[in-house]
Each structure stands twice: as C-alpha cells, then as structure tokens.
Amino acid sequence: MSRPAQAFEGSHFGIRCLKVVLLLSLTMVTACGAGGFSLEKAEVDRSVLTSKVPDDAGSAGIDANRLSDQATIRNAVSSADLQELKGQAIPWANAETGARGSITALAESMERGVLCRKFSASRESFDGVTLFKGEICAAGAGTWQMLAFEPV
C-alpha cells in the first residue's frame, strides 16, 4: 500500500478530515448569509415596468356583443307564442357571440295603445352569467323595438 493510503487505514483521520471540511463549508455559508442580506439594504428594482390595461380597452367589442345578444333576445321575445308557452322558459343562443340563455317571466300588455312584452333574460357567456330585465314594444309593420334592457 502507498504511504497516503496507509495514513487513512485503521484510523479516524479520514472521518475527522470530512468533519472539518463540512464545518468550514457550513461556517462560510453562514457567514455569507448573516451579513449579506438585509431588508433595509434592499432596493426597488426600477428596471421592471408594469402598466394597467385602460378601462375602455375592448369595450367596443363588449358593446357590440351585448347589442347582438340584445337583438337575438328581442327576436326570441317578439316571435314567442305566449298561449303555447304557458309560462315555460324560452331558450336562446347567439352563434355570432357564443352567448346563450333563457327568457322567463314573459308578460304581454297594452300600454298607450301599443302591444308590449316585459321579460327577464339570462345571458351566459365567457365573461360570466348576467340576469337582465327588459321590455319590447311593437313598432309597426311587424318590427319590435327594445325599450328597456338593463342588468338586474
């Protein structure tokens, strides 16, 4: 056996060396962490910039979708046969926007000599579920006009 190998054989010298190396390593790591970081010394990183999306961004698309859904609901309410429905909900869907829902509480009345229909409608879309109260009235020549369509 070589002389260095004989020094490790039969003694605890190797284990002691390993313990010393580990102790020194641990001491250096502890020393670096103890004085190296402080919240008082921490600075704000000004290189990272964040911003807010404007509130009106995309509102034109949302308004267009709401108008399209409103027209779809108006058409479903105006073409409904109230005697045949007998209080049942009317399902509706708009392929253009992907929204769907149902129309309930449909009631017909004559106001100021004009035929009107009041209703509640749900709208389910990617942006959530909303309940609306609305009213349409006959505008002549088979057309209907939406007088009210507000979220509840």
Order of strands side by side in the largest beta sheet? 1-2-3-4-5
Reported for the largest beta sheet, the result is: 5 strands, antiparallel
**Chain-averaged pLDDT:** 82
Percent range for helical residues? 25-40%
Per DSSP, what share of the residues sits in E-state strands of 2 or more residues?
25-35%
Number of strands: 5
Write down the secondary-structure element order: HHHHEEEEE
State the low-pLDDT regions, or none.
none
Radius of gyration: 38 Å
Oligomer classification = single chain
Distance from N terminus to C terminus (CA atoms, Å) equals 92 Å
Based on secondary structure, the structural category is alpha+beta
Described by the principal axes of the CA atoms, the overall outline is: rod-shaped
Distinct helical segment count: 4
Outline the secondary-structure elements.
Blueprint: H1 3-8, H2 13-36, H3 59-79, H4 82-85, E1 90-94, E2 99-111, E3 114-125, E4 128-140, E5 143-151
Antiparallel strand pairs: 1-2, 2-3, 3-4, 4-5
